[in-house]
Specification:
Oligomer: single chain
CATH class: Alpha Beta
CATH topology: Rossmann fold
Number of domains: 1
Number of helices: 7
Domain ABC transporter: 4-224
Strand order of the largest sheet: 6-7-8-3-9-10
GO molecular function, one term: ATP binding
CATH superfamily: P-loop containing nucleotide triphosphate hydrolases
Strand content: 25-35%
Radius of gyration: 18 Å
Distance between the termini: 21 Å
Keywords: ATP-binding, Nucleotide-binding, Transport
CATH architecture: 3-Layer(aba) Sandwich
Largest sheet: 6 strands, mixed
Family: Belongs to the ABC transporter superfamily.
Protein name: ATP-binding cassette domain-containing protein
Length: 224
């Protein structure tokens, strides 16, 4: 059974009097432990698909099953639980809180989970070690390079131990050398068994994945 099963999925948005079909009859399966790039130009539907996969939105037509569970029928609170337990997000803009140290930024989602300090500490330290930032744990975002900030963002995701990592243009704000370092971290995490889904418009970035899904005008155009 596929980890992610999407069948004949469509998603519509209304802008004024116009209805836009962001996803148009899309079918896609992603297995446990895959590294897949979802590639397409701006407006192609790739970000909409990411939101569907990440349980940030639901399809209007069709089926989305995650790990055998039908997502379409869940309430917002249930979707939030799935995001919290199974899915980690890495964004282009890092989304770190400037007044918190690297350690505190990684720790914050665990606080929201209600974990005690004793429970949080080993998870935070292990996540920072996984991205080679244990020696920067007391540094604030303004004291870190862009690449280091993105590594903190990845550590924040890892601390929650998600089985799926959705990386939305994770190298978009970085130079090419640092971008390679971030992609190598994602490859390492994939080698450890995590499912990585990379959203990008850049073919060179997409080629780092093991499979490329191409989107255009809301339709799945090609799978490599």
């Amino acid at each position: 059974m596929s980890l992610i099963h999407i069948e004949k999925a469509s998603k519509y948005y209304t802008m004024g009097e116009e209805t836009i079909k962001a996803l148009d009859d899309v079918s896609l399966d992603i297995d446990h432990g895959e590294f897949v790039a979802i590639m397409g130009p701006s407006g192609s539907g790739k970000s909409t698909l990411m939101n569907i996969i990440g349980c940030l939105d639901v399809v209007d037509k069709g089926i989305y099953n995650l790990d055998g569970q039908a997502i379409n029928v869940l309430k917002d609170s249930q979707l939030a639980d799935i995001r919290n337990q199974k899915i980690g997000f890495v964004f282009q803009s890092f989304n770190l809180l400037p007044r918190l140290s690297a350690y505190e930024n990684v720790e914050l989602p665990l606080i929201y989970r209600g974990m005690s300090k004793k429970e949080r500490e080993p998870l935070v330290l292990h996540a920072l070690e996984a991205v080679d930032l244990q020696d920067r744990k007391k540094h604030f975002p303004s004291e870190l390079s862009g690449g280091q900030q993105q590594r903190v963002a990845i550590a924040r995701t890892l601390a929650g131990d998600p089985s799926i990592i959705l990386a939305d243009e994770p190298t978009g704000a970085l130079d090419s050398k640092i971008g390679v370092e971030i992609l190598n971290i994602l490859k390492r995490l994939n080698a450890q068994g995590r499912t990585i889904i990379l959203i990008t418009h850049d073919l060179l970035i997409a080629q780092q994945a093991k499979r490329i899904v191409r989107f255009r005008d809301g339709r799945l155009n090609e799978v490599v």
